[in-house]
Write a structure and sequence with these properties.
The complex is a heterodimer of chains A (about 450) and B (about 140). Chain A folds into 3 domains: about 130 residues, no CATH class; about 160 residues, FAD/NAD(P)-binding domain (3-Layer(bba) Sandwich); about 70 residues, Alpha-Beta Plaits, CATH 3.30.70.20. Helices cover about 25% and strands about 25% of the residues of chain A. Chain A has 13 helices and 23 strands. In chain A, strands 10-17-11-12-13 form a 5-stranded parallel β-sheet. Chain A has a 3-stranded antiparallel β-sheet with strand order 1-2-7, with no helix packed on it. Chain B has a single domain, classed as Rossmann fold (3-Layer(aba) Sandwich). Chain B has a 4-stranded parallel β-sheet, sandwiched between helices. In chain B, α1 crosses α4. The radius of gyration of chain B is 15 Å and the shape is globular. The chains are: A alpha/beta (about 450), B alpha/beta (about 140). Chains A and B meet through α12 and α13 of A and α1, β2, α2 and α3 of B.
Chain lengths: ~450, ~140
Amino acid sequence: MMDAGRHPNITLLTYSEVTEVSGYVGHFQVKVRQRPRYVNVDVCTGCGACAEACVFKRGVPNEYDVGLSRRRAAYIPLNGQAVPLKAVIDDQACLYLTRGKCTQACVEACPTKAIDFTQKEQIIELNVGAIVVATGFEMFDPRRLPAFSYGKSPDIIDGLQFERLSSATGPTQGQILTSKGEKPRRVAIIHCVGSRDENANRYCSRVCCMYALKHAHLVRDKTGAEVFEFYMDIRAFGKDYEEFYERVQREGVYFVRGRGAEVVVLDDGRIQVKAENTNLGIPVQIDVDMVILETAMEAPHDSDRVATLFGISRSASGFFQEAHPKLRPFHTNTDGVFLAGACQAPKDVPDTVAHAGAAASEVLALLSRGEVVISPTTAVVDERFCSGCKTCITLCPYSAISFDEAARVARVNEALCKGCGTCVAACPAEAITARHFADRQILAELEALLVPV
Amino acid sequence: MAEQFEPRIIAFVCNWCTYTAADNAGVSRMEQPPNVDIIRVMCSGRIEPAFILKAFALGADGVIVSGCHPPGDCHYSNGNFKTFRRMPLVERLLAQFGIEKERFHWGWISGAEAVKWAQLTHEFTERIRALGPLNWSRQLESKEE
């Protein structure tokens, strides 16, 4: 990300959203809505003085720490590691922007006078040759499965919250602590929360086994606590992954084969995990200080809107559909629109990097050629038969047919025609032919298939 | 033992959704009845009612038309809406010709719904098998005589 931010040929549009896409491969027109950040990025140095000065001391939950810490209205995203390293003012939280009442201490504190409350939303129009959709994923919300009691105890956390706990830039500076501020003595890790489950997602989310093993390793390493992993199958599918699994086993983690069935918060705040050990065929019940729910990756909640925007379809799991599951895994069915990363399917970091690299090279190959091959399956009007009724003109979804007033016939623009054949089917004079899908050809297919036996 | 009746079924499918589904069904090794012969067109909006009548006239016992789910799945924005308007007319036309409405199925199967395609072809084949042969061409000929 840092490299992308520094690259002279790459413009990052942060705090922005694509609102409209039109055109075709090599010639897309994209409208981008950039929200006001109330900070002039040309002069902001990312020093963070505004965040310190912000009078909204109570703040709002910090998204980057998954709510484990709070941030103020003026802040540098990602706990000060944003790219580009610029401050932003949250217009949902800022006292001045929401209520109009504030001493505007941030304006005073800024050494470069970067804060500008007059900024307005901007619409940026771009003309681009190709589009890579890399909208990523969302984590499954474990509240949707009440048996896991997520939200009933601060010590029942999901995998991302654990990542923040064990991160040096997180709320505990990397110490793994329970809500009482103590090191846990017993930790349960529950696999497949929201995946391989008919009540949530049927697919395997693919990465959770490995990050769960990493969490087990971190807990053992940092706290020495007893770790119980409740799993159905361990899917250590990648290079060196099986070896890592064996290493975690050697570190003394207890592996209990069986889906975590229930997490119970007792009246005194203690947490119990219930499951079936399917290797021994017995129910197990363990008291723990902390539960980590290893949740599934899901398609973002607004991916239907994104799919419609870019003309791509979605698989049954909600992720974007690739053009071919094996041979064209980063193409879509819309020429010039490519997929990168977890928006196509759950992926771990190496697979995402490989997928994104392939999509980028596909874009470069497309653009460096300078011309695109279009499909020969276009419609053509035989002007001898065209009666000039204009039926086809209103039907064409691409406005590819125009009416020649002088000759009183319809004409197809072959660069715009995508060859759907709607006009061909509708033409009352049978004056339009779909190349490669002509009436003659389809009827010949029919005759050949239905030859009497 | 009498030989089981094997219906001949023609499926007109669009390139982007249902053909992809059928292709995926094949790639995923799903079993599909050999009775269904596919004719691919770029969009279900290309399918002329005349094709369906011609299929029956040439000896098909059943016809399937399938495209992309409305409203937004169509690769060509709204070709499926044209299908949506045309196919009910075909249904009425077939009824007037005395062809059982069960012999004609039209609907939507997206590229991701390979299972649905495999199910449809199985169920439709069994439905036509139960109805027996149509022999529409022979009926037409006898009427002409």
